[in-house]
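User: Need the bound-state model for zinc ion:
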Amino acid sequence: MYRIAPSLLSADFARLGEEVRNVITAGADWIHFDVMDNHYVPNLTIGPLVCEAIRPHTEAPIDVHLMVKPVDRIIPDFAKAGANVITFHPEASDHIHRTLALIRDHGCKAGLVFNPATPLHYLDHALDDIDMVLLMSVNPGFGGQSFIPGTLAKLRAARERLDAYEAATGRQILLQIDGGVKVGNIAEIAAAGADTFVAGSAVFGAGRDSDPHRYDSVIAAM
Ligand code: DX5
Ligand code: ZN
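Assistant: Bound-state model below.
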């Protein structure tokens, strides 16, 4: 089963509730919510108040991608604001196991995010505490960047690892990809092993007029 998670980073921030409703109506599965702090990454976006504001607009899972450092103190706020999935970068946490437990103790699914050059060995002692692995296929901070081709080999390695884990434990861990995902490369990315696809500019680049169906064809093509 595949999931499409449009990233609000490229949405019209003046009309977020409407954008959320439109992409879900168009067939998207999750809402990807990029949180940037102008410290861990060189950009500043949205926080728990905005998560709370969009929560009534959809029943779809809100997938919060934290690009913030430190990470722990903001987690309870996002859980209260209605987040369903919370992911963070291991470099941004002093105690990865503690941060994963904090997310799950607040009733959310937890995931680790790997930057393009971050090795997968962070998974070695964490798989039992993870619900999703997110591989970045661009450097975090901005939408609209190009997919880094080397991510495909990393995806295949992660897929192998997660399949072996599922065979041994019966527990499925999702494998998400984020950055430069387009209609033209999504099949290749799926073949490399991803099951959950973040797409920002590819979806919201489809226009900012008020036609509620302007995303339908892009999401259907994915
Ligand atoms: C980048 C964000 C992504 C971004 C993806 O740091 O994590 O979620 O919005 O945007 P596109 O799909 O345009 O590469
Ligand atoms: Zn993201």
